[in-house]
Amino acid sequence: MTETIPLDAERVAQYLREHPDFLDAHPDLLAVLTVPHAPGGRAVSLVERQVEVLREKCKQLELRLAELIRNAQENDAIATRLQSFTRDLLVARDPAQLPILVETAMRDTFSVPQVALRLWSVSADFSELPCVHAVEASVRTLASSLKRPFCGPNSDLRPAVWLQDGGASARSAALISLRVGARPDAFGLLVLGSADPERFAASMGTAFLERIGEVASAALSRLTE
């Protein structure tokens, strides 16, 4: 006598996976099979449940598409601002005006509320500029160690004291090193601050900040020795 092996849910599921055309061959089952429907727990037909699942997937895709469109629009706006920033620095005839242009662009073009710029290793012709200060060795070392912009909370960041009110109101900050080409040593540091803790969150991408640093470095390198 052949032993009958009782069916369990896993065997049924495995059979259906191996025979995806089963319901095509037995369409009458679609009308009688029911599954619980999450809202209210009422039973619905398998076809209704499939429609609900597809609707939910479409909704999620629509939300994802809207997010992608919004991100693309924001990136396009930032790219336009970056182009304007680059153009203004390229047409500047007086190198002594470049630090002012950089700081003004950060505030007005990129809407950064707090900005500070410090340069060192500049030529004697520009040693009296407001942004040229004696910067302690530990901060110069920090600037040279940054391979990409730093973003994160202002947890007693030393360069943050250059910001307005000594950085007391800056909840988040970005540090952008300025260097000539691929040279390892930085000749300056651009500090951006915000009272919004998420403006320069540690998790944010730094691609545009890197571009800003590259453009600012190229322009301000005209002041170096």
Structure, explained:
With 225 residues, the protein is α+β, with helices and mostly antiparallel strands. It folds into two domains: 9-91, no CATH class; 95-223, 2-Layer Sandwich (Beta-Lactamase), CATH 3.30.450. Helices cover 44% and strands 13% of the residues. The protein contains seven helices and six strands. The protein has helices spanning 9-18, 22-25, 28-32, 46-91, 98-109, 137-145, 207-220; strands at 34-36, 43-45, 114-119, 150-153, 172-178, 188-194. The strands form two sheets. Strands 3-6-5-4 form a four-stranded antiparallel β-sheet, with helices on both faces. It has a two-stranded antiparallel sheet with strand order 1-2. Strand 1 and strand 2 (43-45) form a beta hairpin. Helix 4 packs antiparallel against helix 5 and helix 4 (46-91) runs parallel beside helix 7 (207-220). The longest helix is centred in the N-terminal third of the chain and has 46 residues, at 46-91. The N and C termini lie far apart (98 Å). The model has no long low-confidence stretch (mean pLDDT 87).
Briefly say what this structure is.
The protein has 225 residues and is α+β, with helices and mostly antiparallel strands.
List keywords for this structure.
single chain; 225 residues; alpha+beta; Beta-Lactamase; 2 domains; two-stranded antiparallel sheet; 7 helices; 6 strands; 44% helix; elongated
